[in-house]
Design a protein that fits this description.
Number of strands: 5
Shape: elongated
Structural class: alpha+beta
Strand content: 25-35%
Distance between the termini: 29 Å
Strand order of the largest sheet: 1-3-4-5-2
Largest sheet: 5 strands, antiparallel
Number of helices: 3
Radius of gyration: 18 Å
Helix content: 10-25%
């Protein structure tokens, strides 16, 4: 991770949460016997559940409007299981000196999720639009109105 840490969040994944998120059935997300048969210590979290805390961090950093015009790219590297506590962290990536001509200035946030049992379980990058009203360095396109 680069830059100063902006926000952190620790989440413990319980079997109840994993089942509630994806429902019941005979698969590694809902049936412990199947998960263990496949070599996992417990239920395996759904990938989308595992990355959900990244959204909470971005909400904390930029507000819920980050999703309008923002892009979140995630790469999962290890499965998270029931009982795992994962720490999510976000840091600012230094911005280039000036945005490309004709484009809005963007803000880039590096995100990482890790646990003591697994090491790094996911890395992500969020590219967020800069608000010209809250960031005097932000530049808007001439053909689009500024947004708050």
């Amino acid at each position: 991770m680069s830059g100063q840490t902006l926000a952190e969040l620790a989440v413990t994944f319980s079997a109840e949460t994993i089942r509630a998120y994806g429902g019941s059935g005979r698969h590694l997300h809902a049936d412990v016997a199947i998960a263990r048969e496949l070599g996992f210590p417990d239920l395996v979290s759904w990938g989308t559940l595992t990355i959900l805390p990244f959204s909470a961090l971005l909400d904390e950093i930029a507000g819920p409007d980050w999703a309008v015009g923002g892009v979140l790219t995630v790469r999962l590297s290890r499965p998270v299981c029931a009982g795992d506590t994962v720490t999510y962290a976000a840091s600012e990536v230094p911005a280039p000196a000036a945005p490309e001509p004709g484009l809005r200035a963007r803000r880039t946030i590096a995100l990482q999720a890790s646990s003591t049992r697994l090491g790094v379980v996911a890395v992500a990058e969020a590219t967020l639009p800069r608000s010209s009203t809250s960031d005097p360095a932000g530049k808007e396109r001439d053909d689009q109105p500024a947004h708050a």
